[in-house]
Fold:
Amino acid sequence: MNALNIKNLKKYYGNRLVLDNVNLSVPQGVVFALLGPNGAGKTTLLKSILGITRFKEGDIEIFGKKSNSYESHQSLAYFPEKFNFFPYFTVEGVLKFYGKMYGVALQDLEQQIDKALDKVEIKVLKNRRITQISKGELQRVGIASIILAQADFYIFDEPFYGLDPIGIKIIKNIFQDLASQNKTVFINSHILGEVEKIANEIAIINKGQILYSGNVDAFINGRSLEDAFYSIIKGAQA
Amino acid sequence: MNKVIMKALLINTFQKEIRNKTLVFLFVLSIFLILLINQISVFFVSNPAMNEGFQWSNTKMSFLYEIISAWGSMLGFILGVSTIKSDMDYGVSQQIVAFPVKPPLYLACRLVGTWLIVNFYYIVTLLLALLVFALSGDQLAFSYKIFLSFGVFSLKILICITLAALLSIHFTKVIAFVSSIIIFMVMNVSNAHFAKGFAWNELGIFSTLGLIVHWILPRIDTISGLSKNLLMDKNTFTFSFLEGGHLVLSYAFLFWVTYFSLKSKDYQGGE
Structure:
């Protein structure tokens, strides 16, 4: 079963067509990356998948359920580009809230929080206010909160944003860990070098149209992902 | 699981509002207001000539009620505009709507959480006012009817909060706050006018709009009247089952419009 199916999706902002007949399938248990230049429609597509932006034409299903339905959200976890929360909360407070929202059993919550903080290596920040930590550390708090979800489909919007090399390494390990548990990881990113190392499947979007969707190795065909990406985008513009 | 989520959302609403500096400011302002009410009421009540032109009753209790009620509604608007808006401002709402939480539950928890905070403030203000009055040498006008009256009045607070939250989804905080007050006044005037009946052939454009408001939105003037009658120990209750039914249906309509606005919110851009 596919984790995600998008059929004939069209999205307009006013009269401007930002997603043009998008068709996309993401198999279960892979690390999938959505790539595209600025303004290509990546974030709009991602928000359409999450059901937080409306579209008039097309269909999006997550594990066979409509993307904007409560049922589809039960198998979903979302990490925004710039993770944020109310400034007066501690790291633990944020994670407690997320854990409860994701339905973590109360008796396990403390243990799950410690485990998640361990995974992103910020346990020492547990009692710190989120205004007292760095941007990269806040991103790690966000990643820890997503780990609590126990979802089947994880969506990460620019997950490498603000992370140092250690943070990047940690998050890549988390992606691989999730995929090994047959969870699906959907990444929206600009960092081609990192994506090349972790993604099994990719889709290239430009001007609202999917230019390629499928296996990474078949796409790069002996080149670097950067070169292959550059040539397909430039080819589409020619 | 829903109970855990409800509790978490309610506590989160308290936390984000209680740690909000606005509330501390409002609390200090409340105390100042009570002392001011005490002084002003002493002035008005002891000068019947000054009181003549006003619609306020010449009792201190009525005076107290009018001022604190207006303050309670105002608090409802102030906190109502931020209950959903602050989620948007902090970039949290996109994460919350992606949670496995039904949007009506999220909305209800935010509104009820805010409502409980305003109610708490309202009760504290009322009790402080009574205390100040008692300490200033007046007979303490304390009765269980105060709480009965408060129970009715709290419905008005809920309507104020919901109205402000609805407008805050579409507008900035300031515009939402000001337009909430304007709509609230229109609701009040319409209710007061059409409660006495009307003639179809006398309806103009504005009075037709007023009639629509009177029918589709909750009748806050009726709620205020009932609350005040209870407080003043009057037996002229004008609240019927029909009015109760209208209140339930019109509030359900207001809630649905707010829910629909939230659900239809288009989180655009971000490229």
In short: Residues 1-75+153-159+186-226 of chain A form a domain with the Rossmann fold fold (CATH 3.40.50.300). Chain A is about 40% helix and 25% strand. The beta strands of chain A are 2-13, 16-27, 31-35, 57-62, 65-66, 76-79, 153-157, 184-188, 201-206, 209-215. Chain A touches chain B at residues 13, 38-44, 47, 50-54, 70, 73-74, 76, 78, 80-82, 84-89, 93, 96-97, 100-103, 106, 157 (CB under 8 Å).
